Amino acid sequence: MNFEHFFPVWDQLNATQKSRIQDSLIERQIKKGTMIHNGSMDCTGLLLVRSGQLRAYIRSDEGREITLYRLFDRDMCLFSASCIMRSIQFDVAIEAEKDTDLWIIPPEVYKTIMEESAAVANYTNELMASRFSDVMWLIEQIMWKSFDKRLAAFLLEEAAIEESSRLHLTHEAIGSHLGNPREVVTRMLRYFQDEGMVKLSRGMIEITNEEKLRQMV
């Protein structure tokens, strides 16, 4: 499918605006593990995922990471164009969690069209509000939910994404998603294993009692 089938307000653009986007559009194939955008000093452009999976996260001065949200097919990322979003005052990094095909709209092109088109401006505001809702939800989880509940929810979410109870994840990777040291993740996973909810092996976690995990959440 072409770009126009993925961009929600394409039909509300005029011919000149459509042509401007098509002439400047960049199509890229990104390998798993590739850093696409690295903080506010980087202004990559608007990312629209055709297929694959991206991760948006922030990193502390000490090097600890926490995932803000994921991007899947048809999702668009605004934080990768922070130079046109002056209200964004924190550094967001974006990397490919899986091999990903995506389009990049140059920031100056998108900014011009957003200023011209009420439909694009409204869509951008809605998308921004949705992303900040994701971030606020994350803050609430960190503040009010214990780590065992957050870890159980994460494992269930991963199982749903991968459509499998066998998750190829390291403890360090989970710590990066949840913002906790690897040692804390390992201790809690061992507790889960002792309780019969998961089975641990090198580089893999198998969910053995999904219902018990759900009850914990």
Can you describe what's shown?
With 217 residues, the protein is of the alpha+beta class. It has helices at residues 15-24, 107-116, 118-144, 147-162, 171-178, 182-194, 210-216, and strands at 26-30, 35-38, 46-51, 54-59, 65-71, 76-77, 93-96, 100-105, 166-167, 198-201, 204-207. The strands form 3 sheets. Strands 1-8-3-6 form a 4-stranded antiparallel sheet. The model has no long low-confidence stretch (mean pLDDT 92).
* Measured distance between first and last alpha carbons: 38 Å
Sheet/helix structural class: alpha+beta
Report the portion of residues in β strands: 15-25%
**Parts with pLDDT < 50 across at least 5 consecutive residues:** none
Short account of what is shown:
The protein has 217 residues and is of the alpha+beta class. It is built from seven helices and eleven strands.
Q: What attributes characterize this protein structure?
A:
217 residues, alpha+beta, 4-stranded antiparallel sheet, 7 helices, 11 strands
Note the topology:
Layout (H helix, E strand, L loop, with lengths): L14 H10 L1 E5 L4 E4 L7 E6 L2 E6 L5 E7 L4 E2 L15 E4 L3 E6 L1 H10 L1 H27 L2 H16 L3 E2 L3 H8 L3 H13 L3 E4 L2 E4 L2 H7 L1
Antiparallel strand pairs: 1-8, 2-7, 3-6, 3-8, 4-5, 4-7, 9-11, 10-11
